[in-house]
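Lab meeting, item 3. Inverse folding demo.
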């Protein structure tokens, strides 16, 4: 018998990333890396993009669903960064839960009549943020793998994707500019400036001391250096560089 499927569509809310997605793909695909390595990094990057779109779909003008990053670099452990990242992760999932309940009321007429509200919400959660928890752990942007204290971080492979997606081949930008681009493109909060913006919106906990975020920046700089993407100039300016050549295109 023929297989019958319904036509799906990308939700309109996902269009919030339209401004950046093509630019990121162009930069990444233009970077000349080993094909197998490039495919694996791109696959992880696509999962990251899908995760980010899901969080954006649930955002509101006052709830941006930013990702407070605990860089989690060996030798730069930071208890305050960890604590705030855990609180932010929990807050994000609360916003998504609220979004699911709103969808339940808005689309009740087309939902299954054989399931009660609790079952419908459970199914929606399994298909959305619980699925993305699993995928996020798989690509190394959610830790720990098991146990309490879930929070966002950045694995080396995801850092590679972000550098190649934001910075064109053989180009470089300052560390501050790169961290700001991560915030603009992906809502990632690493330093004091980005955290303060979200604090003013009410999306993160209020803090009076930003020193833990300055330590978070130092940890991120070290992680970028370990990955081969950061170097310090003589004037104490840190530069993030896409070291790859331009990919040759056969016309």
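The presenter then showed the designed sequence:
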């Amino acid at each position: 018998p023929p297989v019958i499927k319904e036509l799906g569509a990308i939700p309109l809310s996902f269009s919030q990333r339209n401004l950046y997605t093509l630019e990121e793909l162009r930069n990444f695909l233009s970077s000349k890396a080993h094909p197998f390595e490039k495919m694996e990094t791109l696959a992880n990057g696509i999962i990251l993009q899908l995760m980010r779109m899901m969080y954006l779909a649930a955002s509101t003008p006052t709830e941006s669903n930013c990702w407070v990053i605990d860089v989690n670099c060996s030798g730069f452990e930071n208890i305050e960064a960890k604590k705030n990242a855990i609180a932010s992760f929990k807050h994000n999932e609360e916003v998504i839960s609220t979004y699911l309940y709103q969808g339940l009321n808005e689309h009740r007429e087309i939902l299954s009549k054989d399931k009660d509200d609790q079952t419908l919400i459970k199914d929606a959660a399994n298909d959305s943020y619980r699925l993305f928890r699993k995928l996020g752990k798989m690509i190394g942007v959610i830790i720990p793998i098991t146990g309490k204290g879930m929070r966002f971080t950045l694995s080396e492979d995801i850092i590679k994707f972000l550098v190649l997606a934001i910075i064109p081949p053989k180009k470089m930008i300052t560390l501050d500019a790169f961290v700001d681009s991560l915030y603009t493109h992906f809502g990632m909060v690493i330093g004091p400036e980005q955290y303060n913006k979200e604090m003013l919106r009410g999306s993160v906990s209020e803090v009076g001391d930003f020193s833990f975020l300055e330590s978070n920046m130092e940890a991120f700089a070290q992680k970028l250096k370990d990955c081969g993407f950061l170097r310090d100039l003589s004037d104490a300016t840190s530069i993030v560089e896409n070291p790859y050549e331009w990919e040759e295109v056969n016309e």
